[in-house]
């Protein structure tokens, strides 16, 4: 799941960036930094009040902005995936365990799928007793229809595409204009068969994506489906006042006997959707609402809140964990067209100061790559960025000598997150030193990623890529972030920097059909990633470690490796 809304496997989701559970990962500094724990396990996962199993009560989820969408067919956002696991189910599921990449487990399906000898056909059988919230049975046709909707890119602009790109039918345009998606067969109500272009070992992870959430065709209201998606999970939408409040209540037609993955402890979840991050942080720190949590990134904590985490009473209410999320600064390759100019901009960035705006080392480590050492076949990552994040101003100036480059640029940031504005202030000073004036432009949080995908994409923008299910695949980080469109003719829909170099994009397009072992393919994708990154379409910054304070009644609070926030599926409340 690629970003941070954070987008997932496509902006923000389902394929993993994997780091081990308790290690800091490569390059963790050990120097003292303002009293922050520098021991080897400072990034170890922390679960608050684990082992709780009582049902009942309400959890208040405090958020600074509304969900971009609740429609599973139009979502590449980890926040939607987090809440989505409460009201929709998929063929398989990426199940979270604190500090670890999620495990792919069967969900609607009875197993992880049966694959043909050539690896190109996957067959799934549905569990018995599956029902929608209205009591009607969930069938294989409902799952197929859910996938078909994601092909209607004129309707669902943020629909996840990784599953679609693996299937054989590239010409299909969705159920509103075409009759049938031939790449998927439903021989009976409980069987669904996927036909792939080539063998795809990670396919069980692909069908954990929201594409395979069942949608009853008769209840499809297109863009309005986001207001009340029909539940196949333990909760359903009771009320939803966009931008203000949403309440989820129990779905009486969900049968826990069909679902070993969701404990469904609270009776209700109440989401407050317009509380400022500073207010959220203070409410959680002061325990003003004992039933409260937040899904905001970094637990909505501000830089000034970091010291409070040392208070033993607050520390015992603070869940923590490394995420499968790496933040980057995207450089719009359509407006900053010269790779040398992009390199100069990248070298001028003071990423060490950017880390400070995130709250310092307590909130994660600086990285020079989006790839991690445990990805199968990953090769050495080459970067001219300073490992410690220090700017290289003089080198940047030399690169710009004799160049015709833009003297004014725009940095866009989500208006709900103060630290992203502060990152812009750092960049503003960095760009000034190399002769570029940088305008800081706030973007409404709820529309942030749709703005980046449209005509409003600024010259520089922050995004995050959160992996999920497959922690070993290089492709599932490189292709969504930097790869071409499904037909290879332009940049891919979740490729925020809009990178499309004729030779390199063609190489990535052809690699999609390549065969070989995971190690062999990983090495090839690593190689092309190095080549693309030499043109600086984006600049890696932070591999995040989230600290999220919860109310004193909250139990089983863990930071999801994929979600980058409290895992809604695990929490309970003691009242």
UniProtKB/TrEMBL annotation:
<dbReference type="InterPro" id="IPR030678">
    <property type="entry name" value="Peptide/Ni-bd"/>
</dbReference>
<dbReference type="Pfam" id="PF00496">
    <property type="entry name" value="SBP_bac_5"/>
</dbReference>
<protein>
    <submittedName>
        <fullName>Peptide/nickel transport system substrate-binding protein</fullName>
    </submittedName>
</protein>
<dbReference type="InterPro" id="IPR039424">
    <property type="entry name" value="SBP_5"/>
</dbReference>
<feature type="domain" description="Solute-binding protein family 5">
    <location>
        <begin position="103"/>
        <end position="471"/>
    </location>
</feature>
<dbReference type="InterPro" id="IPR000914">
    <property type="entry name" value="SBP_5_dom"/>
</dbReference>
<feature type="signal peptide">
    <location>
        <begin position="1"/>
        <end position="23"/>
    </location>
</feature>
<feature type="region of interest" description="Disordered">
    <location>
        <begin position="213"/>
        <end position="237"/>
    </location>
</feature>
<keyword id="KW-0732">Signal</keyword>
């Amino acid at each position: 799941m690629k970003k941070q809304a954070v987008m997932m496997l496509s902006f923000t989701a389902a394929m993993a960036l994997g780091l081990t559970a308790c290690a800091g990962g490569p390059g963790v500094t050990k120097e003292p930094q303002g009293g922050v724990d520098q021991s080897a396990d400072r990034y170890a996962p922390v679960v608050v009040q684990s082992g709780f199993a009582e049902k009942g009560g309400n959890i208040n989820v405090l958020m600074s902005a509304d969900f971009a969408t609740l429609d599973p067919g139009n979502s590449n956002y980890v926040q939607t995936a987090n809440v989505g696991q409460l009201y929709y189910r998929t063929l398989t599921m990426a199940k979270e365990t604190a500090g670890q990449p999620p495990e792919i487990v069967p969900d609607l399906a009875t197993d992880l799928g049966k694959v043909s000898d050539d690896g190109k056909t996957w067959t799934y059988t549905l569990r018995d007793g599956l029902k929608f919230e209205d009591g009607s049975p969930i069938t294989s046709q409902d799952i197929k229809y859910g996938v078909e909707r994601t092909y209607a890119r004129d309707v669902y602009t943020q629909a996840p595409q990784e599953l679609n790109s693996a299937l054989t039918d590239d010409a299909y345009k969705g159920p509103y204009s075409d009759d049938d998606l031939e790449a998927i067969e439903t021989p009976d109500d409980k069987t669904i068969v996927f036909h792939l272009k080539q063998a795809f070992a990670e396919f069980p992870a692909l069908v954990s994506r929201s594409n395979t959430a069942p949608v009853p065709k008769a209840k499809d209201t297109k863009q309005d489906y986001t207001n009340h998606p029909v539940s196949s999970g333990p909760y359903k939408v009771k009320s939803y006042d966009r931008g203000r409040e949403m309440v989820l209540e129990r779905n009486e037609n969900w049968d826990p006997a069909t679902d070993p993955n969701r404990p469904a402890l609270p009776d209700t979840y109440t989401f407050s959707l317009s509380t400022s991050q500073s207010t959220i942080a203070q409410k959680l720190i002061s325990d003003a609402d004992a039933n409260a949590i937040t899904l905001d990134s970094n637990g909505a904590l501000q830089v000034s809140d970091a010291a409070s985490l040392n208070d033993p009473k607050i520390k015992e209410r603070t869940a923590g964990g490394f995420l499968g999320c790496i933040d980057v600064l995207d450089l719009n390759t359509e407006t900053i067209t010269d790779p040398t100019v992009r390199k100069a901009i990248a070298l001028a960035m003071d990423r060490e100061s950017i880390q400070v705006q995130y709250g310092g080392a307590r909130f994660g480590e600086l990285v020079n790559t989006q790839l991690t050492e445990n990805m199968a076949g990953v090769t050495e990552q080459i970067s001219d960025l300073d490992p410690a994040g220090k700017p290289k101003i003089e080198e940047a100036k030399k690169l710009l000598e004799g160049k015709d480059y833009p003297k004014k640029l725009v940095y866009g940031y989500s208006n709900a997150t103060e630290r992203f504005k502060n990152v812009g202030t750092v960049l503003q000073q960095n760009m000034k030193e190399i002769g570029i004036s940088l305008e800081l432009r706030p973007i409404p949080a709820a529309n942030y990623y749709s703005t980046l995908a449209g005509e409003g994409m600024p010259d520089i923008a922050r995004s995050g890529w959160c992996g999920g299910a497959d922690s070993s695949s290089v492709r599932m980080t490189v292709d969504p972030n930097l790869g071409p469109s499904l037909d290879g003719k332009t940049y891919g829909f979740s490729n925020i920097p809009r990178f499309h170099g004729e030779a390199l994009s063609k190489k990535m397009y052809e690699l999609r059909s390549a065969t070989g072992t995971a190690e062999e393919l990983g090495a090839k994708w690593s190689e092309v990633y190095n080549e693309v990154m030499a043109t600086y379409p984006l600049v890696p910054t932070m591999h995040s470690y989230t600290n999220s304070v919860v109310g004193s009644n909250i139990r089983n609070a863990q930071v999801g490796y994929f979600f980058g926030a409290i895992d809604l599926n695990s929490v309970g409340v003691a009242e």
